[in-house]
Design brief:
Layout lengths: L6 H36 L1 H12 L6 E2 L5 H5 L6 H14 L16 H7 L3 E2 L5
Parallel strand pairs: 1-2
């Protein structure tokens, strides 16, 4: 006995198959992105060390109360969004009083802070 599907049933099965394929594709993209961030997170310590070694004897801590967005983006673990958040928070609080206040900035987690505390300083605003 041969089963013949109506046109509507074939379209419906095709839609379901298409949705499943799209779901699998997006799931793989999400997994790939997550694994990429895991790999990058472990490299921050190494990146921080390379930053200090590259500067060598010319190494000078950056004052986060005067740093520009470009200065901050050049630091390990700091992207454009985090740099802008550091500057915006600086403006809101009238300047950093202590390095610990960096922990309150979105995008500055424990690992980034541990790296930054050796690379930046706070010279209190006048």
């Amino acid at each position: 006995m041969k089963v013949v599907l109506k046109s509507e049933e074939r379209i419906s099965k095709f839609k379901i198959l298409f949705i499943k394929i799209i779901f699998i594709f997006f799931s793989l993209v999400v997994i790939w992105q997550q694994s990429a961030s895991w790999v990058g997170a472990g490299d921050l310590e190494t990146e921080c060390q390379h930053y200090k070694e590259k500067a060598g004897s010319n190494f000078k801590k950056i004052d986060i109360n005067k740093a520009t967005e470009e200065d901050l983006v050049a630091l390990p673990g700091i992207g454009t969004k985090t740099a802008r958040a550091i500057i915006a928070y600086r403006e809101v609080i009238g300047g950093y009083k202590s390095l610990e206040q960096l922990r309150l900035v979105r995008g500055v987690g424990d690992k980034v802070y541990d790296c930054l505390k050796e690379l930046v300083t706070v010279i209190e605003p006048h």
